[in-house]
Each structure stands twice: as C-alpha cells, then as structure tokens.
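Handoff note, outgoing to incoming analyst
You'll be picking up this chain. Sequence as last confirmed:
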Amino acid sequence: MKAIRIHRRGGPEVLGLEEIERPVAGPGEVLIEVAVAGVNFADVGQRGGGYSNLAPLPLTLGYEVAGTIVAVGPNVPHLREGMRVASHFEQPPISPCPCEGESWWYPPVASFIDLCHETRR
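Most recent structure output, in case you need it:
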C-alpha cells in the first residue's frame, strides 16, 4: 500500500510517498481503508517537530480520517467490515489503513456522502 511518510522532521520537503506493508487488525482493533485524511495542526507539528507529543519516526501522518472498515479484530462487537466511519486519533496511525482500539471514536459516515467528491470543493 502507499503512504505519505516522514523519516525526519522539517518542512514539506521531508514528505515522501512510500510503499509499506498493510497492517493487520489485532484484538480490539479495526483496519480502515482511508478514503480521505485531513491535515491539521498536529500533522504539521509532527512533521516540523513543534508538536508537544512527538511520535517516533518514521511516521505516517493523518490524525483525522474517513473511510471503510476492511477488517475487524477480535473483541470489537459494535463495528463490522464495510462500515463507513470517520475517526480522530490520539497519535497518528501507523499507516493509511489504521488499526484503532475500541476506546477511540468511530462516528458512521452516511452512505449518501461521497467522501472523495466532498473534499474537492
């Protein structure tokens, strides 16, 4: 899978497109195939090194995502494959298909919303 990653802190020039291994959803986790990801203050701070809680490098940015659940690990009773969800992470996900614990937020995304079309405005 492809991911935008950083291996050092700095300006936009440190962003790179890479091929990475797809993660597996473990106990209490789901795997989200990300359709859209927001770029917010935390992403910019992580990239530049000015964020208060820096994650280790290398790092895939993307604190805010929306997409489709493609795998559900054990002990996740309220979510299922095929659900369209949005999420906000406490730390950046490990890839563009983040695994997420049950304690994090998964509001559903209505089926009439075209995630890619809505972001082109």
